[in-house]
Amino acid sequence: MGLLTFKKGIHPDGRKDLSMNKAIQDLLPKGDLVFPMQQHIGAPCDPLVKKGDRVFVGQKIGESKAFVSAPIYSSVSGTIKDISPRLHSNGTMVLSIIVENDNTYDEVQTLIAHNDYEKLSKPELVSIIKEAGIVGMGGAGFPTHIKLNPPADKSIDSIIINAAECEPYLTCDYRLMLEKSNEIAIGLKIILQMFPGARGYIGIEDNKPDAIDVMKKACVNLSNVEVTPLITKYPQGAEKQLIYSITGRELSSGKLPADVSCIVQNVGSAYEIYNAVVNGKPLIERVLTVTGEAIKEPLNLRVRFGTSIDEVIQAAGGFKETPVKVISGGPMMGMALSSLNTPVIKGTSGILCLTKQQAKLEEESSCIRCGKCMGVCPMNLNPTKLNSLVLRGKYEDFEEYHGMDCIECGCCSYACPAKRHLTQTFREGKRTVNINRRKK
Amino acid sequence: MYTVSSSPHIKSNDSVQGIMRDVIIALIPATLAGIYFFGIKAFLVTLVSVLSCISAEALWQKLTHRKITIRDLSAVVTGLLLAFNLPAAVPLWLPAIGGFFAIIIVKQFFGGIGQNIMNPALAARAFLLASWPVHMTNFTVDGVSAATALGILKEGGGKLPSLMNVFIGNVGGCIGETSVIALLIGAAYLLYKKIISWHTPVAFIGSVFILTFILGRNGFMTGNALYEIFAGGLILGAFFMATDYSTSPMTKKGQVIFGIGCGVLTTVIRLYGGYAEGVSYSILIMSLFVPFIDKFTAPRIFGEVK
Predict the structure, then answer these.
(1) Residue B85 pLDDT more than 70?
(2) Could you count the other beta carbons within 10 Å of the beta carbon of residue A92?
(3) What pLDDT digit, counting tens, does each position of B142-159 carry?
(4) What mean pLDDT value characterizes chain A?
């Protein structure tokens, strides 16, 4: 089978060499742990504990009654020190539970381990996954149980595991595949069990040939699973682009993957599904990449949620030089942090520290109409046109020119020689349109 | 406290200045050829034109309290292209006026870089040709009056230069259009650096080639198409002017339509019009259609069902 891909996109410098050969290490936090009650898309959780309570590893400390939400578990044992708003990696203050770590890691078994997972029904599996607090591990943090429970009228024929890891610098999915390939395969098997008749695909960019090999080996006995090598190109791992690359189906505006009979799960989510169902472990930690030119010893770490980013950076030897930007996630879609005093949460796929040289902070200049943005936009939009519409406040025209279809991948801003803040204005445009829609 | 900004956090190494620098590099062979064939006078005209464009841009931005952007080198490109469209024999005040007209009237009045609706160098050439037609059509070299190849084709009189001389540049004409080989070297560089794509030049030159052969100066299917595409300013116009970002379509399909439109107009002007050369007017006219072409060649949005 040849390499699969989508149209347009960019080829940024991968920089995965910094950390790709570092095996995943465990980091045990020393300081207090901060658990924001919002680590997912959907309703925030309500604290289930109060100040002074003792908690255990794997104890549920936050939950919401809303359908779209995911419970939060303590990753250490210790005492609840405080419940108050704290700085979240998205830049806002979010109600958080602060746990003083007693360093004993006393555990409590919350979920039941199911070695006989093959006997579980779909509703049982969905409920385990929901209870385990699993969300999309790629960064967006959409609750996994909702994705696995599409409306009854949508037939699902393809389960796609997103292992493209198209963001430069990040290597956590790559390491997870090398080290946990069988567990990931079981995770996919469990998902496929929920959708009889569907085929599984594991999409991996061809810059990770050893990951392709180990996943092929791990899936050799799964006749309904195919490892699909993809051309290394950003944003190969964007949901719409990945579905197109693998199935040739185009997801039209406002539609969900289930509308084209697909479900896309991040490779980390597949691993966590295995962990929850087979081991009975709720989601309390994740693998992330600490990297960037400003980091002394870039590496891949398994970090318990709530650990401060400062501690994570210390675990990587600290800074080689003072970074200009510290980013939660990858360089293309990650969020810049103002402070290291924020916790690792479910969606933290990487801590990227860029020096002045990499984080080019150039002033924007006028558009010269070179058309590069149009040449790279994977959604086939006209970014320079949309940019001027937002800047002139013409939000209706912004919609008319399909601005709402922007996936915010950042290709246009990356390619723009005039360094225009294209993606940024589209975020603003989309937000304003959504606010105006709600007003109506 | 670290810098916080919207993603993406890394950018390509491309810059406006880098693009303009590449265009300037691509224009160097043709500049040298112009100086070689037309002498020191060609150098002086080029120098005055470039300096005039840079000063006009700096002066205008200073007077209007804007950021001075001459470092982006776009004014240098305009200056070079303007000189390329002038005969070497023009008095030196002519490129000086042309540079100011190009930068202030055509470029800055419309909002500066990327906003002008016509190529500044071409519009300035049209302005100079209308205002000082005698100077602008005086192709005297070393005191010897020389007609252009296209002029001879149109008006007759004089011996038509050989195809080889036209290709090398040993003919009368404007400074920059003379040497086809020098222009093609520069064009190859721009294509290699992906500053321009093949769409506009191939559509433009290809349609002139086909149409002049079919329509022919001496009747149906009699045209000397190869000679026609190398004579005059077609190679210069197709690779360096019709590909101007501001005044040509952004979509590939649009660029082909634009190139064909330029080719048709050039052929019509050359064969049936009052002027011997039609490249600059055809590009100027087609530039006015750019918003329409861009609108009607907009690509289908991913997932959109038409």
Answers:
(1) yes
(2) 10
(3) 667 777 888 888 887 778
(4) 95
Distance CA A202, CA A318 (A): 35
Where exactly are the structural domains of chain B? 16-293
Does the ipTM surpass 0.85?
yes
CA distance A352 to A221: 37
| pTM of structure | 0.94
Q: In which order are the strands placed within the sheet that holds A46-47?
A: A46-47, A60-63, A72-73
CATH of B16-293 given 3.30.70, 1.10.3430, 1.10.3470, 1.10.150: 1.10.3430
Contacts of B245 in chain A (CB under 8 A): 368-371
Mutate: best of A169, A366, A420, A424, partner B, most B CBs <10 A:
A366
CB contact under 8 A, A332 and B9: yes
Q: State whether A371 and B3 contact (CB < 8 Å).
A: no
Of B113, B246, B302, the CB nearest to A379: B302
pLDDT tens digits, B254-277: 999 999 999 999 999 999 988 888
Whether B302 sits inside 8 A of A334 (CB atoms) is no
Could you say which of A252, A333, A338 has the minimum Cβ distance to residue B4? A338
Residue whose structure tokens are 């079981």: A186
Put simply, the answer to whether B14 touches A382 (Cβ < 8 Å) is no
Whether residue A414 and residue B19 make contact (CB cut-off 8 A), yes or no, is no
Q: Give the nearest chain B residue to A403 (CA atoms).
A: B301
Decide if B9 and A325 are in contact by the 8 Å CB cutoff.
Answer: yes
Domains detected in chain A: 112-279 (3.40.50.11540), 372-439 (no CATH)
Structure tokens at A172: 């956590």
Q: Which residues of chain A have pLDDT under 50?
A: none
- Cα–Cα distance measured from residue B104 to residue B188, given in angstroms and rounded to the nearest whole number: 31
The SS3 call for residue A312 is: helix
- CA B139 to chain A, closest CA, distance in angstroms equals 34
Residue A51 vs residues A44, A104, B195: alpha-carbon distances, Å: 19, 19, 63
CA nearest to A362 within chain B: B11
